[in-house]
Design brief:
- The complex is a heterodimer of chains A (325) and B (233).
- Chain A is built from six helices and 14 strands.
- Chain A is an alpha+beta fold and 325 residues long.
- In chain A, strands 1-2-14-11-7-8 form a six-stranded antiparallel beta sheet. Chain A has a five-stranded antiparallel beta sheet with strand order 3-4-5-6-10, with helices on one face. In chain A, strands 12-13 form a two-stranded antiparallel ribbon.
- Chain A is globular, with a radius of gyration of 21 Å.
- By secondary structure, chain B is of the alpha/beta class.
- Chain B has one domain: von Willebrand factor, type A domain (Rossmann fold, 3-Layer(aba) Sandwich).
- Chain B has seven helices and eight strands; from the N terminus they run βαααββαββαβαβαβ.
- Chain B has helices at 27-30, 33-49, 52-57, 95-115, 138-146, 167-173, 187-207, and strands spanning 14-23, 58-65, 69-76, 119-121, 124-129, 156-161, 177-181, 222-224.
- In chain B, strands 1, 2, 3, 4, 5, 6, 7 and 8 form an eight-stranded mixed beta sheet that branches.
- In chain B, helix 5 (138-146) links the parallel strand 5 (124-129) and strand 6.
- Chain B is globular and about 55 Å long.
- Classes of the chains: A alpha+beta (325), B alpha/beta (233).
- The interface between A and B is large, with 45 and 32 residues.
- Strand 9 (232-233) of chain A pairs parallel with strand 4 of chain B.
């Protein structure tokens, strides 16, 4: 009597096809040429909370949203905390219209408490703006801009108020910490969570500093905020506490577009003038559709020599039903 | 799309070029300057090559000048350089030769880096001399190098003077900083500290997430000279 052939056991765990970060360019960077557990280049922040990875993913209305912050190689090498932050919140107007508020901050390297500064400013601004817009019936450009101005002023005041011992706050009284020491860029977008009849929506965007916003349209990133690309790169930037107001504008986003807010840790490598760079080309291909959480984080940890800054991205895909299949 | 499909697209990697320009006039041998520089170069090379972030982000070029100027080591990552060549005593002190060579070399290097897809930060020049220039009209070639309306690739220059270097001359060479060795300090020792300060400046400038030229504090045995005109950096 023949014995039944045993079926092979199902493999419950599948190894990734290619472990490690995606390498942009023809070789890995020196930093990633050795595993993190042997190189002595990947150090923890001694007081805790290095913040190597922070991520939010979810939906509101017809929007699919993914946001993440990745600690940069410079801070890993120096054993310092990530200085980028993001904040995403949702609200509903009196008339029942849902919306998303997306905020990004990049703590200035010269600021002693920039990690706290970026977290505090993005959360204060995002919360206040969401609450203000939620109290309106049918927000228009004027009412939303008024809410933005109020949120900005409130952020500048409240960012400098904390008690010693508050979570993540500097271990000093606010009187001993200057605004320069908590300085951060701020970039935001207010996105309606459903389109209007012609499958487009009007988004209010704004910024102070060098964290840009892009729109992916027909496989190409278009920068929606000011940029200056000459032969020589300049690294100067402004922040919340040294600026009088945010620079805002209204932009139109089609259902087939993708909205992308980012800090310069990624933004500097998306495009150079009209030309898309390698990172921009790669992310345009990867993020034309929503991706699973682990792939989103992997996309953001690309390896490129000199791309050593903290990285933050908020990506917003409108009309998520188009991605059902 | 895999990462290899982006080969034809520029990467936009960022680089900070540094040019170390050393006086090789005859007097540099007598005051210990040549030895101090040659002893400092291996430390500079090792400090940069051993730091994974600094090495990838910086490029080093060594230029010497006396009657003429020459590139001793073309612009390259430190890890691609086996060892920085030493300097040796030669003849006179032509500042013009150094500035003219810098102007053409920097333009060539930036063009090459841009063609290779790099984003280039404004170059930094560390200029080291122990005496007065033997060419009288060096200011013309200096202006052609440093005036941004004449040269879009104008570098930032940090000038160091030792021994018989004149304070006014060194101050005019530097565009963002200038340092002069104190009179009672041995030139060789001053140059040793200058090499250390220069190394630290390169490492700190390249270590930052957003590369910014870090001007060193006055090296031990030197004083900082106030400049007449500060160019925008």
């Amino acid at each position: 009597m023949s014995r039944k052939k045993r079926r092979p056991k199902k493999q419950l765990i599948q190894a990734p096809a290619s472990p490690g970060p995606i390498v942009i360019a023809d070789r890995p960077s020196t930093f990633h040429s050795k595993p993190w557990w042997v190189s002595n280049w990947w150090n923890l922040e001694p007081t805790g909370r290095s913040d190597d990875v922070t991520c939010d993913i979810g939906t509101v209305g017809d929007l699919a949203v993914a946001a993440a912050t990745i600690r940069g190689n410079t801070h890993r090498h120096d054993g310092n905390r990530c200085e980028d932050a993001f904040f995403i919140s949702t609200g509903t107007t009196i008339s029942g219209r849902s919306f998303l508020v997306a905020v990004i901050g990049d703590g200035l390297g010269s600021a002693k408490h920039s990690s706290f500064g970026s977290r505090r400013a993005t959360q204060l601004f995002g919360n206040h703006l969401t609450a203000s817009i939620s109290k309106t019936d049918t927000p228009n450009e004027e009412t939303v801009n008024t809410a933005v101005d109020a949120a900005f002023e409130m952020t500048k005041v409240k960012a400098s108020k904390w008690k010693i011992g508050d979570l993540s706050a500097p271990p000093l009284s606010p009187a001993k910490v200057s605004s320069a020491d908590i300085e951060t860029t701020l970039t935001f977008a207010v996105v309606p969570a459903d389109p209007n009849a012609n499958k487009k929506r009007t988004v209010l965007i704004g910024s102070v500093g060098d964290s840009p916003i892009f729109k992916l349209s027909e496989n190409k990133w278009e920068c929606l905020t000011d940029s200056d690309n000459g032969d020589i790169v300049d690294s100067a930037t402004r922040g919340v506490h040294s600026a009088d107001r945010l620079t805002t504008s209204m932009v139109s986003i089609a259902d087939t577009d993708v909205l992308f807010l980012t800090t310069d840790g990624i933004g500097n490598f998306i495009s150079n003038g009209a030309n898309m760079l390698a990172v921009g080309t790669y992310l345009a291909d990867r993020w034309r559709n929503p991706v699973p959480l682990h792939e989103f984080i992997n996309d953001m940890t690309f390896d490129l020599s000199s791309a050593d800054d903290d990285r933050t991205a908020i990506v917003c895909w409108p009309y998520r039903d188009q991605y059902l299949s | 799309m895999s990462a290899t499909d982006v080969e034809q697209v520029q990467t936009g990697e960022q680089v900070l070029p540094f040019y170390i320009v050393c006086d090789e006039s005859a007097s540099m041998a007598y005051n210990g300057g040549i030895d101090a520089i040659n002893n400092g170069l291996p430390d500079l090379h090792a400090s940069i090559a051993s730091d994974p972030l600094v090495n990838d982000k910086s490029r080093i070029c060594l230029i010497s000048f006396s009657d003429d100027a020459e590139v001793l080591c073309p612009l390259a990552p430190a890890s691609d350089i086996d060892a920085l060549p030493g300097v040796m005593e030669k003849g006179a002190t032509s500042f013009s030769a150094a500035f003219r060579l810098l102007k053409t070399q920097i333009a060539q290097d930036i063009a090459m880096l841009r063609a290779d897809g790099f984003q280039v930060f404004r170059p930094a020049v560390f200029f080291i001399s122990d005496g007065e220039p033997t060419d009288l009209n060096w200011q013309d070639s200096h202006r052609e190098l440093t005036d941004k309306s004449l040269n879009p690739h104008a570098p930032n220059i940090i000038a160091f003077g030792v021994d018989r270097a004149d304070a006014d001359t060194i101050r005019r060479v530097g565009t963002i900083a200038a340092f002069l060795a104190e009179q009672d300090v041995n030139p060789g020792n001053a140059l040793k500290e200058i090499m250390r300060a220069l190394t630290n400046s390169i490492v700190q400038s390249s270590s930052s997430s957003n590369p910014t030229l870090i001007i060193p504090p006055a090296p031990d045995g030197t004083i900082s000279l106030p400049l007449d005109v500060m160019d925008e950096t």
